[in-house]
Specification:
Elements lengths: L2 H11 L4 H21 L3 E5 L2 E8 L5 H11 L6 E6 L3 E7 L7 H7 L3 E2 L3 E7 L3 H20 L6
Parallel strand pairs: 2-3
Antiparallel strand pairs: 1-2, 3-4, 4-6, 5-6
Length: about 150
């Protein structure tokens, strides 16, 4: 840090409201990004569960987008955010206590997590292999939810 920058920061410290103003600006920017991403969401089948609200999303906003989607789509069983990488797609799942246990969903896909926040990773693959893999996972999930110890 240069002396000039230190002097500039010293002057800013006299304005006690400046950090709050900057924080509010950052939150407004983040909220706009979350809404913009959420506008691209659509209903799809994820891990054999139908009517899931899903969207492609940067990793840094997965949780914010997931909670926003849950608020906007109270009838969705859960929200799913896909983060595409060079060799895999990571799915982050978010739910609420009155909806599906996404920990069970993620486990059926080889992942893990908790009741309301979980995820799994799938290797990048061609479409026919992806459809086959998702159908198999859906079958496993249906079997898991048939067991009495698992509650949706």
């Amino acid at each position: 840090m240069t002396i000039a920058r230190m002097e500039a920061l010293d002057g800013e410290l006299d304005r006690h409201d400046l950090p709050i103003e900057r924080g509010r600006a950052i939150l407004r920017w983040r909220d706009r990004l979350v809404k913009e991403i959420a506008e691209r969401a659509h209903r799809r089948t994820v891990a054999g569960v139908e009517n899931v609200i899903a969207v492609e999303c940067p990793y840094s906003l997965v949780s914010s987008v997931g909670h926003y989607l849950l608020d906007q789509h109270p009838d969705a069983p859960f929200a799913a955010m896909a983060v595409s990488g060079a060799t895999a797609v990571t799915w982050s799942l978010r739910s609420r206590d009155d909806r599906i246990d996404v920990g069970v969903v993620a486990k059926s896909m080889g992942g893990g997590g908790h009741r309301n926040a979980a995820g799994f990773r799938r290797a990048a693959m061609d479409l026919s292999h992806a459809v086959e893999s998702m159908a198999l996972a859906g079958q496993k999930l249906r079997e898991a939810f048939r067991r009495p110890e698992v509650q949706a």
